[in-house]
Backbone:
């Protein structure tokens, strides 16, 4: 990914910042320029999401996406955050066999990958199981 | 809109066609379709070509010009249409709208993808560009991964099993054995699927459609003209298209494609038919779970029962509603831009009674269902005998 393309998204990727519409109160993540419900009447402001959520679905990847080859097997999940929005993220610090639908997770800041040996290092969020 | 009919169809062999170029493939399918229609190239008014990613697969954009030039059809308008794996279905729809509007009487709808000139990893990466690069692919998602997320949730909500998903692959491979254009003409068993290498669990290698080269072409004419040119015009009775979010996670359901539901609703309404009226369907089985979800979303069975009805043989040739008689994307192969057109080629051959050992007896109304990405685009066509 080109450096500016990654850099532009840093505030959202590093802080889990989405958008809240002042008109309909809907919370959106990833952020966007127009509220899909209110369109031109919407008033979007940055909104920092709570980091708790739960697993809606998951898969154990044995064949990696480009750039993730050294991480297999890894767990990829759709997580519904407490604030409502859903996102796709890896589940980290776990045994791939222990993840279940409905598991509570917290989003944690992690290294995601790197451009090349001396290129940019990407960071972002992964989910970590909250163990009772 | 005036009535539109298919008057000719053509297909290349699907597979890893290392000895055939993009240009040769397109010309082969096109020439077969024109010959099948019994028309002269001079009668063609315009063409629409479905293609997902020639830029990534063969580093060539602007294929609309190449295709018109090599077909000897200059200077007719030629337009490339892109909607990921739904590119072919969208090209057909544009061609239908063109003829239906009265702008041209005879129009070509084609589809093509040359995928094996790059390594498999590069091809998979190219396909992944149909998902959200910023928020899905960036965190490690692939297409098998996204469909696996749907599969896992479908298993959780409805009790669908991995064996039921495997039954889709077994059926489609069986059907492909009777299709000489298919990539895989070999039977597989549920056990083969279950024991195939893990890709993105619960999906395994034999739950996934392959990387394929192929081209397909159909010739459309106004129904009025079609009746003068052929005794077996196949009417495009309904067309429907819908869009949804590019990211799977942004959708309210992980076990239905809302774009399919919406596109089908429009196509059924336009054709004046109900799901019960459909005699056979080609649906977008890029992964086995996708066929299960498709037959539910198209209302061939109740939501959640797609796996069960497949296992019980209701979607087999000879069953209540035969699905993917061609072998589907799984058995016939999935040259992404060509798929939506190839589906219609199969429906037309079936409705004409030309499908040989795959023939569904007495088929009068067929449906083609083509999906882009993980469901950001869907297009549905209903075809019926016009004689
Ligand atoms: Zn709003």
Residues:
């Amino acid at each position: 990914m080109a450096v500016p393309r990654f850099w532009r998204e840093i505030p959202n990727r590093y802080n889990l910042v989405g958008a809240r519409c002042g008109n309909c109160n809907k919370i959106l993540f990833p952020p966007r320029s127009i509220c899909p419900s209110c369109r031109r009447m919407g008033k979007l402001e940055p909104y920092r999401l709570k980091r708790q959520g739960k697993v809606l679905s998951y898969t154990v990847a044995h064949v990696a996406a480009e750039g993730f080859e050294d991480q297999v097997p890894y767990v990829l999940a759709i997580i519904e955050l407490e604030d409502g929005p859903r996102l796709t993220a890896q589940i980290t610090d776990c045994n791939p066999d222990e993840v279940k639908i409905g598991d509570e997770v917290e989003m944690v800041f992690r290294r995601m990958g790197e451009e090349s040996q001396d290129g940019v290092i990407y960071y972002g969020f992964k989910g970590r199981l909250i163990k009772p | 809109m005036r009535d539109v009919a298919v008057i000719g169809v053509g297909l290349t062999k699907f597979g890893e066609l290392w000895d055939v170029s993009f240009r040769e493939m397109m010309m082969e399918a096109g020439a077969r379709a024109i010959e099948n229609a019994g028309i002269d190239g001079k009668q063609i008014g315009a063409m629409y070509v479905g293609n997902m990613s020639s830029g990534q697969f063969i580093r060539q954009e602007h294929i609309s010009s190449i295709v018109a030039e090599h077909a000897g059809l200059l200077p007719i308008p030629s337009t490339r249409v892109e909607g990921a794996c739904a590119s072919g279905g969208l090209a057909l729809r544009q061609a239908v709208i063109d003829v239906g509007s009265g702008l041209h009487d005879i129009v070509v709808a084609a589809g093509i993808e040359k995928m094996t000139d790059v390594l498999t990893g590069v091809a998979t990466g190219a396909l992944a560009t149909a998902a959200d690069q910023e928020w899905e692919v960036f965190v490690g998602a692939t297409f098998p991964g996204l469909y696996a997320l749907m599969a896992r949730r479908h298993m959780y909500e409805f009790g669908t099993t991995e064996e039921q998903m495997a039954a889709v692959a077994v059926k489609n491979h069986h059907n492909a054995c009777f299709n000489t254009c298919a990539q895989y003409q070999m039977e597989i068993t549920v056990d083969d699927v279950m024991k195939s290498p893990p890709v993105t669990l619960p999906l395994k290698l034999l739950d996934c459609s392959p990387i394929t080269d192929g081209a397909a072409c159909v010739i459309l004419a106004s129904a009025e003209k079609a009746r003068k040119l052929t005794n077996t015009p196949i009417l495009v009775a309904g067309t429907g298209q819908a869009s949804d979010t590019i990211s799977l996670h942004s959708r309210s359901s992980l076990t239905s494609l809302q774009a399919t539901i919406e596109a089908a609703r429009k196509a059924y309404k336009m054709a004046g038919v109900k799901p019960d009226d459909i005699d056979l369907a080609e649906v977008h089985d890029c992964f086995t779970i996708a066929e299960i979800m498709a037959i539910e979303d198209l209302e061939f069975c109740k939501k959640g029962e797609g796996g069960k009805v497949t296992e019980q043989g209701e979607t087999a040739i000879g069953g209540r509603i035969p699905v993917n008689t061609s072998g589907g994307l799984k058995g016939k192969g999935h040259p992404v831009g060509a798929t939506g057109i190839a589906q219609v080629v199969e429906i037309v051959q079936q409705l004409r009674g030309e499908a040989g050992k795959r023939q569904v007896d007495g088929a009068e109304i067929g449906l083609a269902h083509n999906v882009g990405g993980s469901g950001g685009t869907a297009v549905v066509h209903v075809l019926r005998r016009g004689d």
The first strand of chain B starts at residue 4 and ends at 11. Chain B has two domains: 4-119+212-234, 140-208+237-385.
